[in-house]
Amino acid sequence: MVKLNKNCLQGLRCPKCGSCEPLNVTISLTIPIYDDGFEFPRQEDHTIYWDDKNPCRCDECDYDGDVSDFNVKEENDIRRDELSDSVD
Ligand SMILES: [Zn+2]
């Protein structure tokens, strides 16, 4: 039984292998950078935004796509190994 995401990844899972997390979402984040480096902000200090167009990769099987590709509604939408490696 797969644990479905109910929080910030609600409705998202890998369309290839069905994995729910972690999903590697490429985001941009504005942080203060000083000449001698930066301190990565604590998660609670920042809200991170992304939308359906952000690149996303499954940690489990390396499936690559946009976040929208991971919006899998039904179990039947999981294509598992039927996907080829071809790009759009
Ligand atoms: Zn996957």
Write a structural description.
The chain has one domain. It is built from no helices and three strands. 0% of the residues lie in helices and 11% in strands. The protein has a three-stranded antiparallel β-sheet, with no helix packed on it. It has 88 residues and is mostly loops. The mean pLDDT is 83. Zinc ion binds next to loops.
Helix share, percent: under 10%
Strands of the widest sheet, in order across it, are 1-2-3
- Poorly predicted segments: none
Whole-number tally of structural domains? 1
Which of globular, elongated, flat, extended, rod-shaped describes the shape?
A: elongated
Separation, N- and C-terminal Cα atoms: 31 Å
Which hetero compounds are present in the coordinates? zinc ion
Would you report the number of β strands?
3
Largest sheet: 3 strands, antiparallel
Any key phrases for this structure?
elongated; single chain; three-stranded antiparallel beta sheet; little secondary structure; binds zinc ion; 88 residues; 3 strands
Please write out the topology.
Layout (H helix, E strand, L loop, with lengths): L22 E3 L29 E4 L5 E3 L22
This protein binds zinc ion (ZN).
The site of zinc ion has 8 residues, from loops.
Give a short overview.
The chain has 88 residues and is largely without helices or strands.
